[in-house]
Amino acid sequence: MKNGIIYIAFKFVLDNLRHLTLVEWFKQLGKIINPKPNDADYKNAFSRTSVDIFIILKWCFILIITRSCWTNNFLTVVVWYLLLTNIYSYFYYHIWTDEALNTEEFEKDRIRRRFVNLIIAVGYSDLCFAYLYKLPYKLDFEWSDKSITFTKSLWYSVSNSLAANYEAVKPLTDFANNVSMTQLIITFIFIAIILGKSIPQTNSNS
Questions:
Q1: Most-buried pick from 9, 62, 142, 191 (CB within 10 A)?
Q2: In which region does residue 163 sit, left (phi positive, over 0), alpha (psi from -120 to 50) or beta (all else)?
């Protein structure tokens, strides 16, 4: 109990939440189809490829439902799930795990991948909020010229994540303000905390 009850409970929750994320299932699938499970290079390659496939699929999903203007309670829950697991997965695998904390042997390519993944994660977060603003929560916002477009919702999402004003879209209700503030908090976590932690010292020999 040297680390206290709170830390132990927090660590237990974080370590076990990953089993509820789709990306973890994709990684397990990669391990199953890996032809050389005892080869470390193959293992890493299949794991990364599985994650990349999942990222591509979830981007395609949000783009398709946004473009097709599909919205219902189930899709809204799915989008929130993908949005929240997006930030959890980045935090867990890039900040929390023992491998992520051991930065002494980081290679340059690994650090570059971290920055690429950070950009992708932030971009996906903004895209998910753009969907929420445009479709399920559109009546909670005021739209210029009474026209609700993906361009406006995307620009509002991006500007809101940067704490900037975008006059074409404005929150009308407390719920709209709460959703917008949630996006701002998530972006703050990405940019202010995770980005600062994502700059380890590289191995000079790499």
A1: 62
A2: left
Token pair for 85? 């697991």
Q: What burial class does residue 59 get, using C-beta atoms within 10 Å of its C-beta: 0-12 exposed, 13-18 middle, 19+ buried?
A: middle
Spatial distance between the Cα atoms of 72 and 135, rounded to a whole number of angstroms: 9
Per-residue pLDDT reduced to its tens digit, 10-48? 888 888 888 888 888 887 777 777 666 666 666 677 778
Helix (H) or strand (E) holding 143: strand 141-143
DSSP secondary structure string for all residues of 99-111: HHH--TT--HHHH
Name residues whose C-beta falls within 8 Å of residue 58's C-beta, 6 or more positions apart in sequence: 22, 82, 86, 124
Q: Tokens for 141, please give them.
A: 């916002």
187-194: long-range contacts, CB 8 A cutoff, minimum separation 24:
187/122, 187/125, 187/126, 187/161, 187/162, 189/87, 189/91, 190/87, 190/90, 190/118, 190/121, 190/122, 190/125, 191/122, 194/90, 194/91, 194/94, 194/95, 194/118
pTM above 0.70, yes or no: yes
